[in-house]
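Revision sheet: structure tokens.
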Amino acid sequence: MQIEFYGATSGITGSCHILRANGQLVLLDCGLIQGRREIEAKNREPFPFSPDDISAVVLSHGHIDHSGRIPLLVRQGYRGPIYAQNATCDLCEILLQDSASLQERDAEYENKWRKRKKKPLIEPLYTRKDARQALEHITGLRYREKREILPGISICFQDAGHILGSSSVEVWLEEDGRAQKIVFSGDLGQYDSPILNDPAVIQSADHVLIESTYGNRHHRDRQKTIDEIGDIISTARHDRGNLLIPAFSIGRSQEILYLMGTYYDEWELDRWEVFLDSPMAIKASKVYWEYPHLYDEDATRLRRKVREMPHLRNLHLSSATEDSMAINKIQSGAIIIAGSGMCNGGRIIHHLKHNIWRKGSHVMIVGYQAYGTLGRKLVDGHEQVKIHGDMYRVHAKIHTVGGLSAHGDVGDLSRWVGNFNSDPAVHVVHGEPQSKQDFCDRLNQQLGLRADVPQEGDVLEL
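Predicted:
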């Protein structure tokens, strides 16, 4: 029995770990590597295994950095099952098709340049057909439903509180009379965050793989975050500009709209026109609406009171391209929620082109920004940024709201791993190098656990 640490060891994105037992090979996640162009080029490098050798894929949740290379796996010949929580299956129908469309568009754009330079053309990393074939292999499971997926290998999904359907995965391995239990945290959410339940308590494991996105940072207090958002909205209204909110289509967009519905009067949102300018976020919001049994108590009460979610009188759902383009004619009084969350693609790019140079405009960053992305450059205070090949002066006011992260902070991560009473070995993954090491040190020194930071390609004999 072995664990091989592969993706999300040298950084945050590209989650993928390998379990071997009874001659079977199981993948925990198969995510897309995201960031700068040279980093994303790694997605085209061969997998460290043959897709034909994989027996099953177990998916913690739908975010592309965890699911985004599954269509590539299928393109290269994988035909086995893909297990995920039921809501994750529904979200993957949206996410994987969208990711495939982006791959096709990126290849088309690249090939126009290659034709002019008389260079060899490239194929998309994968296509919408590959995504559709991948979706045919997905099997949904409920939370807390233990299932034997292969001889001697069983899994169970527990709520991770990160996005709808997000899971921590319990895996039981048996081989030659020996047994081991591995728990993969997936991405863990904050405790007491809106809409979703807190991360589930898991108490026993021999080995734990835990994320560390915010392994050395504390988020801002929730109420202070709410007050900060209200102040930003008030300031933007006073400056008579637009407020742009780059937001991930799954999870963050729904949380922002939920908060706007909750604090509609307090934030005086009746003075604004609110646009959800993301076809994927609109579709995902409908999926969120269909899973009320996964809500926390507050969201459940709201769900009973209203017929739509979110409940905003001045909300405009902009699905068509024409609707999105029309928003750019508005120079004041618009709150625009659009993807991508790191400003490295999607409709938010066009809104930034029309607003980033305006002194009355505001941009509210509400999620993690990876190194090399446009969003990270805005957070880091760059005075000029390049968008679609042109340089733009950054005159808009940039606000970074850290308390809304869908990832738990160091306190949340410590709280979750502190539930184990079996003295497991803990392996810290999915974080920037310093964050991983700092969290590992905390686990060893403050919590008395046996923790390490595995490197890409490390193989652990169980």
